């Protein structure tokens, strides 16, 4: 099932708050070459490029559907291409700024991935990453629990998306041991106020729900969604409801050799 930028952007205001917080952690303004991993529609990459007027920016994303919206943001120093994170790492290309807002949670084995990404920084290059803390977010917990139960366990052929996101302590260690300084690692709650249960369902349907639905038939799909919506309603009996959506923000600068 392809990503749908229209559904994803229904919560644009909510999703942009951690982006601005992450961008605010970037200390320098001398970057000449920058990349946005998981650039989506490209609008956030454009905003970031306005902060660094001297930098050439590249935005990469694995989703052709999301990148289809990026054309309006292109410029002489802002370019986009379809590329996976794995292919990006394999290039070995060096950067002054590596930025990624809410995408690395989709890649496994962070103990290997993060050192590989950090190795692509130039001296004094900056590293800024944001990810949802999926294991602690209630909607993700409801989703993974449902997938563990029958008949969905069989229908999904045992699939369940286990979040690769590590603890703050683990990221601090990985960042330090791989040559970063000025390290900042923090968890922040971005509350969502929902006047109805559909709002909560819509929020997760544009992201974490996608890999489950693409593994189900149309009939199974309808049953799974009906039960998932019912569990959301039971967990949030009072409306309006507040959903404490937790995100992890990571920043560091590459030490001189």
Automatic annotation (TrEMBL):
Q: Name one GO molecular function term.
A: methyltransferase activity
Q: Does the keyword Glycosyltransferase apply?
A: no
Q: What stretch or stretches form a coiled coil here?
A: none
According to its UniProt entry, the protein's GO biological process terms are: methylation
**Which Gene3D superfamilies would you find in this protein's record?**
S-adenosyl-L-methionine-dependent methyltransferases (1.10.150.290), Vaccinia Virus protein VP39 (3.40.50.150)
- Keyword terms of this UniProt record: Methyltransferase, Transferase
Q: Which domain of life is it from?
A: Bacteria
SUPFAM superfamilies, sorted: S-adenosyl-L-methionine-dependent methyltransferases
What sequence ranges are listed for the domain Methyltransferase? 29-153
Query: Which Pfam families does this entry report, sorted A to Z?
Result: Methyltransf_31
Query: What is the name attached to this protein's record?
Result: Methyltransferase domain-containing protein
**What is the native source organism of this protein?**
Terrimonas rubra
At the highest ranks, the source species' classification is: Bacteria, Pseudomonadati, Bacteroidota, Chitinophagia, Chitinophagales
């Amino acid at each position: 099932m392809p990503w749908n930028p229209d559904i994803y952007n229904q919560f644009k205001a909510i999703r942009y708050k951690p982006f601005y917080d992450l961008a605010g952690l970037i200390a320098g303004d001398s970057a000449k070459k920058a990349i946005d991993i998981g650039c989506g529609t490209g609008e956030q990459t454009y905003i970031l490029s306005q902060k660094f007027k001297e930098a050439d920016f590249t935005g990469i994303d694995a989703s052709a559907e999301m990148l289809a919206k990026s054309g309006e943001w292109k410029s002489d120093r802002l370019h986009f291409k379809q590329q996976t994170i794995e292919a990006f790492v394999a290039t070995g290309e060096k950067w002054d700024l590596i930025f990624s807002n809410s995408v690395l949670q989709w890649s496994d084995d962070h103990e290997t991935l993060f050192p590989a990404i950090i190795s692509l920084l130039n001296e004094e290059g900056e590293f800024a990453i944001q990810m949802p803390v999926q294991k602690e977010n209630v909607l993700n917990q409801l989703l993974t629990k449902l997938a563990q139960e029958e008949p969905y366990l069989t229908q999904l052929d045992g699939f369940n998306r286990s979040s690769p996101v590590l603890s703050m302590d683990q990221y601090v260690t990985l960042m330090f041991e791989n040559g970063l300084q000025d390290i900042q690692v923090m968890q922040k709650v971005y509350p969502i106020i929902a006047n109805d249960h559909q709002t909560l369902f819509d929020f997760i349907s544009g992201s974490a729900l996608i890999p489950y639905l693409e593994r189900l038939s149309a009939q199974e799909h309808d049953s799974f969604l009906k039960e998932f919506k019912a569990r959301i309603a039971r967990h949030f009996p009072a409306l309006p409801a507040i959903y404490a959506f937790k995100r992890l923000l990571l920043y560091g600068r590459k030490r001189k050799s």
